[in-house]
Design a protein that fits this description.
Length: 240
């Protein structure tokens, strides 16, 4: 491995202008049972792979040294778009190579609209992604929950939202950004059909499954909604 002084992403900017990526986690003190000893930058492509050496104090009071590899792709946001009157939801379908290489039949995954936050707050990011992917201009937005999707190795936290749509909010065709190589199909489904597709395996995206089941149990399609998250009116921005 090259010296840190010449390694992109460490003391030298990588292709995205980032530095200091080898120091992430070194200042963590929130848990007295954890001491971060060293952080090794393994790769800094579009996202960041690190190997962290840490000491952990177990229940017996003994300190053990461990290593963990973490993949840092930033945080993200996703939204379930629903039409309560028509009992429909709006999903997306696009090719995902990681699922294709892991036994998905064709890699064409049905999902809720989603994307990385980049430099935006979660609300701004999901409004942007919904418009790009589905052509829907989100008005009222409901925060549902925040979830670590793969905590064993991926740092990403996803902010889950839900928002109504109808003919008046569909201001574009969607389909994603051509310049980013996106080719996204917008798929409208009856909520009962969508729930059935979870059981048959036609919907395997975790984000979609979680939001569809929330919608049926507690959200817009519940017989007796038990809890609804915080509502954010049109134009409101949140904080990351």
């Amino acid at each position: 491995m090259p010296e840190l002084s010449s390694q992109p992403g460490a003391d030298v900017p990588d292709h995205r202008g980032r530095t200091g990526l080898h120091r992430t986690g070194m200042d963590l003190v929130r848990n007295p049972r954890v001491r971060v000893v060293d952080v090794e930058l393994l790769a800094a492509g579009w996202h960041v792979l690190r190997r962290t050496t840490l000491e952990y104090r177990d229940d017996a009071g003994e300190w053990t040294r461990q290593q963990r590899e973490t993949y840092d792709r930033g945080n993200g946001a996703t939204v379930l778009l629903y039409d309560e009157a028509r009992r429909t939801v709006l999903l997306t379908r696009q090719f995902r190579f990681p699922v294709y290489v892991n036994e998905h039949p064709d890699g064409m995954l049905l999902e809720t609209a989603a994307g990385l936050l980049d430099d935006d707050d979660p609300v701004t990011a999901i409004r942007r992604e919904a418009a790009e992917e589905t052509g829907v201009r989100i008005g009222e937005l409901e925060h549902v929950f925040d979830v670590y999707m793969s905590p064993g190795s991926v740092t990403e936290r996803i902010h889950f939202f839900a928002a109504p749509y109808d003919a008046s909010t569909r201001t574009g065709a969607g389909g994603g950004l051509e310049e980013e190589g996106e080719e996204i199909e917008v798929v409208e489904l009856d909520i009962a059909e969508a729930l059935g597709m979870i059981r048959t395996g036609e919907i395997q995206d975790a984000k979609a499954i979680m939001l569809l089941q929330w919608a049926a149990l507690e959200g817009p399609f519940a017989d007796t909604p038990r809890h609804r998250g915080s509502r954010l009116p049109a134009g409101t921005e949140g904080e990351e």
